[in-house]
User: Fold this.
Amino acid sequence: MKSLAICFVLVMLVGCVHSEPQRCPVCGGAVVPIEQVQDDTSKPSRNLAVWNRSSCGNLLFGPGSTICPRDWYACSAFSRKWELSLEDPKGLALEMDGRILDLPLPDKGKIRSLVVYSQSIDGDGVVHSVGFWSDTDESYLDRLNDYAKRAGINVKIERERTPGQTYATAEVKTKRKQNDAAKH
Ligand SMILES: [Zn+2]
Assistant:
């Protein structure tokens, strides 16, 4: 019995739960352990941060992680951050920042991965971001840097992270709006 109690305490420590019941920071509803949700691979991923569909999967969202079954924001037991990543930014319950939505992308034929839009909840703020792989193209990267400067957003460019290809991410942090509750 004692070992069971210790086990329970350990699960509490590694999980996102600090006090019961845990609530989704976006819609305020109850969340469920991540193991209770199956990835339906016949449909787009509900959260690419959790189910990225690559061969190695994502280890950040292991046991102790939780997910909201309404808007799919998930809390990693490892990072303790709530995060949602999707290909379609309209699928995010909180409105994606326009500066990220308007970010110029490389020509379609030069993009080498999914273009993934993400939000993570950071206290009373939201970090909005986008990330993608593309063929290394200096004229595009110049345009991207110019845009980031004008828009006042952070951009990180990792040239030749693999031969011929560049990984770029852009992010901006905003304050949560009072009326920014879930749209549904
Ligand atoms: Zn929710």
